Amino acid sequence: MMAGARPASRFRPRAAWRLGAVLVAAAIGAGAQAQPSGLPSMGSASAAELSPMLEQTLGDAIMEQGRRDPTYIHDPDVSQYLSRLGKQLVAGSSNPSQPIHVFAIRDPQINAFALPGGYVGIHSGLVVSSENESQLASVVAHEIGHVLQRHVARGMTQQAQSSHLMMASVAAALLAALAGSGDLAMGVAAFGQAAAVDQQLGFSRQAEQEADRIGLDMLRKGGYDPNGMAQMFGQLTNASRLNEGTGGGTYASTHPLSIQRMSDIQNRIREAPAAQHHDSDTYWYVRAKLRTLQERSTGQRSAEAALRRETEAFQGVPRSAAWYGLAYSAWRQGDLVATRQALDKAREGGMNSPEIAGLSIALAIKQKRHDEALAQAEAAWSRWPQSLGVALALVDALQKSGQDQRAVQFLDERIRQWPDEAGLYQLRAQSYERLGNGVEARRSMAVYYEKVGALPTAVEQLQQARAMSSDFYVQSQMDVEIRRLREKVRSDRALLERFRK
């Protein structure tokens, strides 16, 4: 992985990101004290022990735990932006069909990491520290490079002893989840055991350079400026040097080939045609939101100070985004007057965005101005019909206005638009429940739980729905779904049992 502000961490999530104790600390070498060089440098990875199917099973189950972690960022604007970024990059790769799921966690460290199954985690600090969209995309592309070459799978099966201990701990925790255990502490304990493995795995120097090259190619084909990778690499190197003597001075020992990697990137950029990239508006608004989101209440003043500096230093969209960030900060602190004032500033010069609209709708709902909120939401959806954040704001406005039937109809359409968006099924279930349709509410919740990986809970919801229904045809449909989910649980358990002992 690329170097971070704390090079010993090597894009490691902080301790609060509990599932990282397994995959980031143990599987992909976070916190590694040395960089083993045994991984193949190029070419296809062997799947003798960790097959693509098992890798996906591990990734899905780990993310079920991760989504419950308090550092996981569920914000629709952030999630949709990062998801689109990942898909745009992988579309230009040698394997455009590879599923990529990019998500964010609340952590000011400049870090990122890859998990099994095509999951890429981005620290909020990485987005906030980037100076343009190509810099951010370069790190995401680098991590996708690791995914495409199955470096995570190789790392998990690289060293027999530590691999066995780590996989046994992972499998035990995930088997508990498949059994329907709702006790997150059980998983945390198992993850902690895996994190204690002395010989933690790390990507080889060759694998890091391979991810650089693949990432650079994706960056160029995705329409981003390849110079973003060199810029970000230099920025992270400088941050590392500033940390020397304060716990972050092990960069030279953990990344001895960083100069060669930098030179390789620069040479490849010089050999390629010049490219320019215009930052998307969404990048700036999401960046401003994350600057606020990553701060606890005690850190809001520093975030606000940075955003105020940007309102003075920037023009156009970046300036509007900084004011939006201040509005969002005021919103989180419950200061509705300051929220509206900052939103007005964000709109100066005719500026607007789905993010601004979404916060304005939320403000109107909070102030019980439901008719105004609904009018704003309908106008925003007409203007930005591809924005998940606006769609959810419209659902909220409909539900708060008591229009649950319209909300269900709108959600049905959005589910066809975004079939993998789990939250839509949960919202539909809420409206069905208020409409007195308990069967459909539970069937919708079953889909929600399946989407987030909680298969036993999905089965429970379907069983409840079946017991409430007197329609033989509907009951038969649910019987089929229950059998399918139970078979998936059985299949996943069989895969994980291989590594339990």
UniProtKB/TrEMBL annotation:
Its cofactor is Zn(2+). One of its GO terms (biological process) is proteolysis involved in protein catabolic process. Residues 79-268 form the Peptidase M48 domain. GO terms for molecular function: metal ion binding; metalloendopeptidase activity. Residues 1-34 form the signal peptide. GO terms for cellular component: membrane. The keyword Zinc applies. InterPro entries: Mito/Outer_Membr_Metalloprot, Peptidase_M48, TPR-like_helical_dom_sf. It holds the Pfam family TPR_19. Keywords: Hydrolase, Metal-binding, Metalloprotease, Protease, Signal, Zinc. It comes from the Bacteria. PANTHER family: METALLOENDOPEPTIDASE OMA1, METALLOENDOPEPTIDASE OMA1, MITOCHONDRIAL. This is Putative Zn-dependent protease. The lineage of its organism: Bacteria, Pseudomonadati, Pseudomonadota, Betaproteobacteria, Burkholderiales.
